[in-house]
Automatic annotation (TrEMBL):
UniProt entry tagged with the keyword Cell membrane: yes
Protein name: MFS transporter
Protein source organism: Chromohalobacter beijerinckii
Keywords in alphabetical order: Cell membrane, Membrane, Transmembrane, Transmembrane helix, Transport
InterPro entries on file: MFS, MFS_trans_sf, Plipid/glycerol_acylTrfase
Domain of life: Bacteria
Location(s), subcellular: Cell membrane
Main location per the UniProt record: membrane
Residue span, Phospholipid/glycerol acyltransferase domain: 452-568
Pfam families referenced in this protein's UniProt entry, alphabetically: Acyltransferase, MFS_1
Length: 630
């Protein structure tokens, strides 16, 4: 079944435009490297290492020079118009490259590699800046996932096709390469004709200032700490990816003891892993930005890299793919590269989505340009890192892979320390998915940004976990101080952002301090969850809402999202059949439903109306799973 986005004009034409562009770029780049290595070097006696490094530098340099200007163009021109112009530039470049391939003008091909890198650097900011104009916020994660899948599959297929075309030899090879480059460019240009209009976010001139523009873009990114951290996170992915892929041929030769076909198989596992990880991220995110997936992805490719680094060399030398397919050790390494890619896909999609959501409309493309500049710098750093570790320190390839694993796991630890709550919320979501058969309705009612108050009926001690896991954003919630200060669970409640509250009898100032903390959270743009009944239901029916919710809204008027929960009455954490937590669990994987209602606008929420809405949502949730509160 074809995904819905790939059938709609607002996404499909651009998807194919960028995928065909990435495909053509990689065909050209890899064909050039093969022709230089196997034709030009033997014929003219050129230095292989010098040529390969020169080619890499010519491809990366335009990203440093022109990304900032590309971001300015994307912010100040209609992006559809810019995309079409850049596809025309690609067609011109590839037509010249086709002629150079046919006449074996290798020096011209190197110059055209720089021209192709320029086109890619200018196209990069459009690639992610155009999506928020054509997709809703709840579709961005899925859109980014498909863009990532298309990009990495294009890289893989372009690399494989380049090898096939170059292997033809003679005039057949030159003619096939030339035709392929031009046809792919034409197909990309045709696809771009159907891209919908994407008007500029700001007007103004687009001055030609490569170095100054780059500094200004990086300065603007630095002034947005949340965006800049996302840029660094993406660049670290490209650093690690470049390290792995640069050493892939050497790893295949010295550890796997395989030939060129084995390099392609390992590269394919990595690329398919990234695509699968991107789609998995979209599936797990359910239409919202899930920051908790970022450290999870880093842990995945860190652990896979650790296992890869501990791999023992396989027996034999220059073994083909067919022979290695009989070796369990080879399948283990193939799986490691696939999981490294999988973790990368899970890791990188939320970061791109975060940049799109957190950047202002009038400079979103410039933030993508800043990302491209940082990516290029980190890829250069990856090359230097490889030289230092493998040449200067004379470390083995296994030690190099273990070093990359350590970098990945350290990155995951840093992210977890900086933003623990999103990861904790995701872990809770996985836990409750295991414990219960959950059904959620109306999760999109919780505002994607800004403060909000979620009010819900209170059935059991698991309610907060269900709501915390089911809500698309991390929640703050009130709870009794004695439970909050539990010796074994206090760390959990502190990370989760629970707000302890004492009764007036125990601490006359406790309620006021809790209300002050709620007020502070709302003023910081957080979502606070409240059980207005103030205690667990004793009979399964809703109790009257207490006046605390009125006090909170009087101090800080915010949107109120009503929610109704059903399915937990009768569990060992509810009061049915005895006091909660004093009974043995009697069932596993119970059906639980959580319904969110439409948000009540600021200043419109009244206690009686909230109580009525929550009661209606509770009845709908009970009807969905076929249970009652009796």
């Amino acid at each position: 079944m074809i995904p819905r986005l790939l059938t709609q004009r607002r996404f499909a034409p651009f998807f194919w435009t960028q995928a065909l562009g990435a495909f053509n770029d990689n065909v050209f780049k890899n064909v050039l490297l093969l022709l230089l290595t196997f034709v030009a070097v033997p014929r003219y006696g050129w230095d292989t290492g010098l040529l390969n490094n020169l080619a890499a530098g010519l491809f990366i340099l335009p990203f440093l020079l022109f990304s900032a200007w590309g971001g300015l163009l994307a912010d100040r021109l209609d992006k559809r118009r810019l995309v079409r112009r850049l596809k025309v530039l690609e067609l011109v470049t590839m037509s010249m490259a086709a002629a150079a391939v046919w006449y074996e003008a290798y020096a011209v091909l190197l110059a055209l590699l720089f021209m192709m890198g320029t086109q890619s650097a200018l196209f990069g900011p459009v690639k992610y800046a155009i999506l928020p104009q054509h997709l809703s916020p709840t579709e961005l994660v899925k859109g980014n996932a498909w863009i990532s899948l298309g990009t990495f599959l294009s890289i893989l297929l372009g690399t494989l096709l380049a090898g096939v075309l170059a292997s033809l030899g003679g005039a057949w090879a030159r003619g096939s390469i030339a035709a392929t480059l031009v046809v792919l460019a034409l197909l990309g240009l045709v696809a771009s004709l159907w891209v919908p209009s994407a008007p500029p976010s700001q007007m103004g001139a687009t001055p030609w200032r490569p170095w100054r523009g780059g500094r200004e873009v990086m300065r603007d990114a630095w002034r947005q700490p949340r965006v800049f951290r996302a840029l660094l996170g993406i660049s670290l992915f490209w650093f690690l990816g470049a390290c792995y892929l640069t050493q892939l041929p050497a790893w295949t030769r010295d550890v796997v003891h395989g030939n060129e076909s084995v390099v392609s198989a390992l590269l394919g596992a990595f690329a398919l892993g990234v695509g699968a990880g991107a789609l998995l991220c979209a599936r797990l995110s359910a239409g919202r930005l899930e920051v908790g997936l970022i450290p999870a992805g880093a842990v995945l490719f860190g652990l896979a890299g650790l296992d890869l680094g501990l791999s023992q060399p396989l027996a034999g030398s220059s073994t083909g793919l067919a022979a290695l397919s009989l070796s369990p050790g080879f399948w283990r390494q193939l799986l490691d590269f696939a999981v490294i890619g999988l973790g990368g896909g899970v890791y990188i999609v939320p970061l791109y989505t975060l940049i799109q959501l957190e950047s202002d409309d009038d400079n979103r493309a410039r933030m993508i340009a800043a990302n491209n500049i940082l990516n290029a710098l980190f890829m250069v750093l990856a090359a230097g890192f490889g030289v230092v570790v493998l040449s200067v320190l004379d470390a083995s390839l296994n030690a190099f892979m273990l070093t990359l694993s350590a970098v990945s796991l350290t990155l995951a630890a840093i992210i977890l320390c900086m933003v623990p709550r999103p990861a904790l919320r995701l872990s809770i979501f996985v836990l409750i998915r295991v414990l219960y058969r959950l059904r959620f309705r109306g999760r999109q009612s919780v505002p994607a940004r800004g403060a909000a108050l979620v009010v819900c009926n209170h059935v059991s001690f698991m309610d907060a976990l269900i709501l915390g896991g089911g809500c698309p954003r991390p929640l703050r919630f009130l709870m009794d101080r004695p439970i909050y200060e539990s010796r074994w669970l206090n760390w959990f409640f502190r990370i989760a952002g629970a707000i302890p509250v004492d009764s007036e009898r125990c601490d006359p100032g406790g309620v006021r301090r809790a209300l002050d903390e709620v007020s502070h959270a709302l003023r910081q743009g957080e979502v606070v969850m409240l059980f207005p009944e103030g205690r667990l239901t004793p009979d399964g029916e809703m109790q009257r809402f207490r006046r605390g919710v009125d006090i909170i809204l009087a101090r800080d008027p915010v949107p109120v999202v009503p929610a109704g929960l059903a399915g937990l009455w009768g569990s060992w954490t509810s009061n049915r059949g005895g006091k909660a937590l004093t009974k043995w669990p009697r069932r596993f994987r119970a059906r639980v439903a959580l319904h969110f209602g439409d948000p009540i606008p600021v200043g419109k929420a009244k206690r009686a109306d909230m109580e009525r809405r929550v009661s209606e949502l509770k009845r709908k949730a009970e009807a969905e799973i076929g249970v009652t509160s009796d």
